[in-house]
Each structure stands twice: as C-alpha cells, then as structure tokens.
Amino acid sequence: xxxxxxxxxxxxxxxxxxxxxxxxxxxxxxxxxxxxxxxxxxxxxxxxxxxxxxxxxxxxxxxxxxxxxxxxxxxxxxxxxxxxxxxxxxxxxxxxxxxxxxxxxxxxxxx
Amino acid sequence: xxxxxxxxxxxxxxxxxxxxxxxxxxxxxxxxxxxxxxxxxxxxxxxxxxxxxxxxxxxxxxxxxxxxxxxxxxxxxxxxxxxxxxxxxxxxxxxxxxxxxxxxxxxxxxxxxxxxx
Lengths: 111, 117
Prior knowledge:
By secondary structure, chain A is an all-beta fold. Chain A contains no helices and eleven strands. Chain B has strands at 5-7, 10-13, 19-24, 31-38, 42-50, 53-56, 65-71, 74-79, 88-95, 107-108, 112-116. In chain B, a hairpin with a 2-residue loop joins strand 5 and strand 6. The A-B interface holds A 30-31, 33, 41-45, 48, 50, 88, 90, 92, 94, 96-101, 103-104 and B 30-31, 33, 42-43, 45, 48, 50, 55-56, 91, 93, 95, 97, 99, 102-111.
C-alpha cells in the first residue's frame, strides 16, 4: 500500500533557529496534508497541498509540494516554544476517504 | 460546533476486562475513523466507516477488537478481552467527503488514553 517516509524523527533546536521536516513517497501523490499534534493533544489540520510545486505560507510556516508530487516539506522560520509538538504529513487516497500518516517529526525547542 | 467527542478521556482497566470506547463525530460528516497511537508504532488507522458502513478494517490488530457505527452520530470501539499491549491513545476522527475538491481534512477528537494493567 501507499507509504510515506518522514524525516527526521526528532529535532531539537534553539529558540530562534529554523526547522524543516520532509515527507517522501515513492509514488505520485494526489494531495498531501500536514497536521500538528501538541504534547498530550490530538492532531490538528494545518494545510493541504494539491498542485505540483505549490507553496503555501502560514505566518512563520512554509509548506511546499514537490514538482513531481512525490515529496513535501514544512519549514518553520525562527522557531518559538509554541512550535513544540509532532508534525505529521498525511496523504489522501484518490479512491477512498482515508489518509495515510507519516511517522511524524517531533520538534523540541529550547528557550 | 463541539467537534469530535470521545469518552472516556482516560480508562484504566485490568487485563481480561472488556473496554468500550465511544465517539460522536461532527454532525454531517460522512467518514469516521478510529486510530491508535503509541510511541513504538505511531499513528495507526484501525478501521473507518463511510455513511455508517465499515469500509476497511484491515488495521484492526486481531479479533479482540471490534467497531460499530449504529447511526451517523455514534460509534464504538470495543476490546474484549483487553491486554496490556493494548495500552495506547485511541483517537476518533471524522471528515466530510469532499474528494471531488481534493479535500480529505480530518477532525480529531481529544482521544482516550487506555491503560491495561
């Protein structure tokens, strides 16, 4: 079945440093979503990318979808302690309503 | 909108006991998903329903697990008998069927933290 690999698994940064997590697939994706899960919380939808080469921004967060639609990235500029949590990518199936989640990248930010 | 509601929020039980987790999806949503999250295995899809009908239960670990959705506003996940390795956070999520617009955004409930002693 369809799988996505997400790297790195963990990232520790100093507050103010940038952070990037990557999601890769061996197959072409119809779309990709990103979710954030705060410690002790539940995954919360951040954004969806659909078009090849698409770039979307939400304040300090920049999301990219690769030209070949096989990879995606989430970049956080100047991290803050509020960015702490686990970031998941998820790919939607074109035939079903389900999502396949990546393993997640857990971000720790040292103040 | 109250969002996806799950109960109980925490459950501690002894091995061999039956456990029932409950979920109320967002009104009007077509899909309901049950996930299990552990440190070792991450976020796993157990089963999902479309319009109350189970579509894919291939993620259900074994026969001890069962799920039902008797109506559009309620679903249960049952474990009988429970085992210590079932300890995890169980999430319910729901979504609208907007695949024609490429949208499969899922809304997660707060989760049930299950501990089996």
